[in-house]
């Protein structure tokens, strides 16, 4: 089959059509929750399933998964732990661990599972035995009985395997033998370049024999003269070193094989074990990407003639395949494509729309801007309720984007699902109305763990996303790390929020809360002397007098400042903390700001310090005001005077944990509301709550004061927010950081997603009820 790629002009036309038909409406209006196809049922951290004697803090992941025919047992690969794990899905809202099988028991301690499938009562585990010996790749297929996990066969694969797929009739297994390149070897000036012998191929295993011990692997050569001619004629890069990556069976049994580094797709007849065709996946030229790692979200960059380099592949119908274009050597087009296998032509391309969805949902990872952006890697297509859906996972933005592919040349965006870090394995389970997403990144030091997320078709929590941004001039408003929240004093449907130092420049975002999800409709850049300001905003207050108060946290005590802007965002005043206070503040400083008007009509500003004043702020030791006592400061605008009050924080018994304040809001002249939280997330999260603090005419003190002088205010718990954070059935977020009482008395809260650094990136926007009821 000859290679047929669209000319650049036609490709741009296809991209423009894709963006116009799918991306722009998606950014303008998220599918309402009531119409969401999939809701999240549960998130299972796989560290909870490690064998006895294994430290739960050790790295353990879930990369690729498979499910038993009855839908009750899920098996996942854990390359980091050199094992496969088993989960019970009998109640998908409460999956339970069923233990693991260590590969050391089957082969060698360095063996790694790369993929898994289930056929009847047999688990087929693809194992990489290469151990870094790139010139001598080897691997095997282990067959285990699902019932007792005993190995009943082990088949030499003659090379380093990657993925496995089972034919629709269950009679054939196909395995991509990648024979991966050494990324540290330079070839023709390209680090990790091709060719690097030996080349890869595909193994075919007929599963028709009753006993797996009689199954045999039969290779499909990609290096025979005829196969080489097919690959070369298709225009694949370095065809003499084919590297099959992902395999998928079509409706008629044709096997489609991606060759990521070669930038192409091959077609195989598994009955004859012949390569029957191939096509290049071509390149993309388009504008509308964030291509510079600079702590800014600026999607004005371009990709010019960039190879798609597809990773996973799935059949959309008998004539079309979809590819997730992660990229590797030279490219990655930050989206996904659909090709007509009859001609090899591009039928549809996501263009800039996939990255734009990541930006709109607050999960664009700027750390990857200069490389492959959101890196779409996992992909699957399956039919639920009579509708074919495509699921495309972003490795770096931790989302799965769902599309209706009823028309394969015009997919329609449906919704965005949040996963934990590095979602790769996408496993539709249509017979049980389930979708399983397994994540390959485990960050135990940050408490963010690899997991299997389960979503129900027409079931589960559909409250996420709870906050998205609109598009302005065709570009989604970029946002991250919302550590502050304030009400518009005159408009009950409007709130304001701001980003912290996860972004280089500071913006104040307007949030429309009249619908669900809430929408970021505008971004106001904060400026200092006409130049963009770079602050670490942790608190915001929209002044009835106009403009904003901002609480900016510093890396040291002296860097903390109370800042006032005008309505245009220009800084008109910057007020440092008193030196005798800032000298005792460590890296946990200002976390909230609010204001009231006193009986004389003068403006009074209150700020919250996250943690106590320290004798030694660098070491966060020696709390000056007593164990677990932090401070609220009062700033009288008319006089410039500061006075201080104490707040007793709850205690924590978890090693390494601490308690702190995250926000402050004036309920009335005598009552403040503060967020109190621990620093834990996921199943370990314990304290995320709103507390009322009573001023009641208490006089504060100036400066540090003598021991015992600081008045510690009376507090009472108002609402435990932890159940609401857990109710979304995802990874429980650590940083509950924004709180606001709207003009109509409704209470809202938001989590800071940390700009995806040591975090899943998911932002949870909460509606907590009426202030009259809560306070």
UniProtKB/TrEMBL annotation:
Ranges for domain Choice-of-anchor I: 329-415
Pfam families: choice_anch_I, Phytase-like
Keywords, in A-Z order: Signal
Nuclease found in the keyword field: no
UniProt signal peptide: 1-28
PROSITE patterns, sorted: PROKAR_LIPOPROTEIN (PS51257)
Occurrences of domain Phytase-like (ranges): 479-754
Protein's recorded name: Esterase-like activity of phytase family protein
